[in-house]
Amino acid sequence: MKKRVILIVLDSVGIGALPDAAKFGDAGAHTLGNIYAQRGGMEIQNLLSLGLGNIENSRLPAVSTPKAAFGRAAEKTFAKDTTCGHWEMAGIIMDTPFKTYPNGFPKELISQFEQKIGRGTLGNCVASGTVIIQELGDEHVRTGKPIVYTSADSVFQIAAHEEVIPLAELYRICEIARSMLVGENLVGRVIARPFLGSNGNYTRTENRRDYAIEPVAETILDRFASLGLKNISIGKIEDIFCHRNVGLVDHTKNNHDGIEATLKYVKQGDGDFIFTNLVDFDMLYGHRNDVEGYAKALEYFDARLPELIAALHAGDLVIITADHGCDPTYPGTDHTREYIPLLAFGPAWEGGVSLGTRATFADIAATVSEYLTGETWQKGTSFLNEMR
Questions:
Q1: Residue in 174, 117, 171 with CA at minimum distance from that of residue 144
Q2: In a domain, 100, yes or no
Q3: What are the φ/ψ torsions at residue 343 (nearest 5 degrees)?
Q4: Average pLDDT over residues 123-128
Q5: In this structure, are 236 and 325 located in the same domain?
Q6: CA-to-CA distance for 55 and 42, rounded, in angstroms?
Q7: Residue where a domain terminates, one of 211, 235, 254
Q8: Rounded Cα distance, 46 and 306, in Å
């Protein structure tokens, strides 16, 4: 029987504030629970049947016989960004998280950046990406200066109108920023944020591109590649891991396409490790405080779950999780420091097992590694035996 793992990250679908959330300004955040309460419920019966509501402090309805092993995990790395979250679930716990810039970037750094790209810049502040392009879009179109901004996360974001700064040039500018943001200015990701529109009515396009740094230690992707196992990376996984040992890449840009791609590879029996990120929850709804949109995205994923379950092969293990929170009901538009849900299931498991609260996202790496290779991962604790 071929063993295979399908790891699906519902980007930002947190399940309650971590004990240290107040240090991030996130006390009381609860992405799933607050959406469910404010919306007055969600049609997510398939997720609930797996045991999503049985997770401690889920604030969702529990079922008597969950079909999956269920639990939650805390983030060991002192962070709440996409890169740290994904790296930790892939086996890296960072001692020193990436640097953040709550007051914008140093003037000297911006000045050097402007010299290197041959243009001035606008912004250099903490901002919502959808808001700042409305505020500065007209000036950007008039001057050709890219908009630079950040958030509570370790990101250097560059927004530009595709008809003012073509994509190829925007990507080149981002590569220059990436080369600069190392050492004492180490930033997790540089993000290209192209948009279109006119006269204060601008809309971001799906031509976003992320520029990460290479993982600072070995990941399960690296280990599997070295053993000849086939990795398949769907969505922005390739960017998060800086294209290192990501295997076959299907860079989908939204949830629908990410689900379609995952289903295709699952049905075909492809790959040994399928790693999928579904970005819409975070990008389109969490950061925009769109409770209704977020709820509908969860309902859409839930509606597609039966297709995934029906497509599974005998040796498949599915893990559904998240990488951080982004509570759309919470003040501000940034990520929130939260537990992530864990739902693990497959044809070989009966479900109904509580995995409790895991000490680190790296328990996912340990579990996946043990299942596919029989080896113990250097970080985290596998929950495979608990599932059995």
A1: 117
A2: no
A3: -130, 120
A4: 94
A5: yes
A6: 17
A7: 211
A8: 7
